[in-house]
């Protein structure tokens, strides 16, 4: 087996490398696929659903949400919602609309295959025949095609900056524009172990922030945060021993 069968899934997971559940699902897919287990069918379907949910949560408009309202929405509803938040349902070209419908059918078929052949989501007859390598590859290829289609559509969208869960590094142009056009001043805060930061905008308006030392370390240098925590624990322990004596 080769990772060449799911290059689109790998690309999507690399882009969203900070999404832990997605990474866990991807690992399950790789493990089961490489082990030539039929459970890779379950994982392939789970990958598509996880991708759809991620994109819906990222792009959905809270004022006019398209996220399924059911407690446990079925697979088709998640796929349809992903198509809608990506505005793929708004194209005028009829041929492209037919192409989109085929992706939806492909997703439905993948779900049906999971229900019938997947070994992990539902208990199966212990002596049922194993799928062929071709059948397992077909299920992974189907998932890869759907996720690639959705991912490429997402890349063309501009995320909503107020709500996005994408990392800071994704917005290099916007970051540089801000850094090149604002002035920053910092001062000791009236609060303990905090710093006041004033960011002066080009129109002379100012944005004032108060940032605690712990938050600053936690957000920007996790290793430094741990080092500070250990040092503080040691200092506190020494202080407690001194009080006891």
Describe the protein:
- By secondary structure, the chain is mostly helical.
- It contains 9 helices and 3 strands.
- It has helices at residues 7-15, 20-34, 39-59, 75-85, 94-117, 133-155, 172-181, 213-220, 222-244, and strands spanning 183-188, 194-200, 206-212.
- The chain has a 3-stranded antiparallel β-sheet with strand order 1-2-3.
- Helix 3 (39-59) packs across helix 5 (94-117) and helix 8 runs antiparallel to helix 9 (222-244).
- The longest helix has 24 residues, at 94-117.
- It is extended and about 70 Å long.
- The termini are far apart.
- The model has no long low-confidence stretch (mean pLDDT 86).
Highlighted features:
245 residues; mainly alpha; 3 strands; 3-stranded antiparallel sheet
Order of helices and strands: HHHHHHHEEEHH
- First-last Cα distance: 67 Å
Radius of gyration over all CA atoms, rounded? 25 Å
Main sheet, how many strands, which sense, barrel?
Answer: 3 strands, antiparallel
Count structural domains. 2
Instruction: Enumerate how many helices there are, as a single number.
Output: 9
Strand order of the largest sheet: 1-2-3
């Amino acid at each position: 087996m080769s990772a060449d069968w799911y290059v689109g899934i790998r690309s999507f997971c690399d882009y969203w490398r900070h999404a832990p559940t997605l990474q866990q699902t991807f690992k399950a897919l790789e493990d089961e696929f490489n082990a030539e287990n039929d459970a890779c069918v379950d994982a392939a379907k789970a990958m598509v659903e996880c991708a759809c949910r991620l994109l819906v949560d990222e792009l959905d408009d809270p004022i006019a949400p398209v996220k399924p309202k059911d407690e446990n929405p079925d697979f088709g509803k998640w796929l349809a919602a992903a198509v809608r938040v990506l505005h793929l349902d708004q194209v005028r070209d009829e041929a492209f609309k037919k192409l989109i419908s085929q992706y939806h059918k492909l997703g439905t078929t993948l779900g049906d295959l999971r229900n019938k052949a997947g070994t992990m989501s539902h208990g199966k007859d212990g002596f049922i025949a194993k799928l062929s390598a071709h059948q397992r590859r077909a299920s992974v290829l189907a998932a890869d095609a759907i996720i690639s289609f959705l991912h490429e559509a997402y890349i063309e969208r501009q995320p909503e900056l107020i709500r996005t869960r994408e990392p800071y590094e994704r917005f290099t142009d916007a970051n540089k524009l801000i850094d090149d056009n604002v002035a920053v001043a910092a001062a000791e805060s009236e609060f303990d172990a905090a710093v006041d930061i004033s960011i002066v905008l080009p129109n002379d308006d100012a944005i004032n922030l108060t940032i605690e030392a712990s938050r600053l370390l936690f957000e920007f240098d996790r290793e430094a945060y741990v080092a500070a925590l250990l040092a503080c624990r040691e200092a506190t322990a020494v202080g407690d021993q001194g009080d006891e004596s």
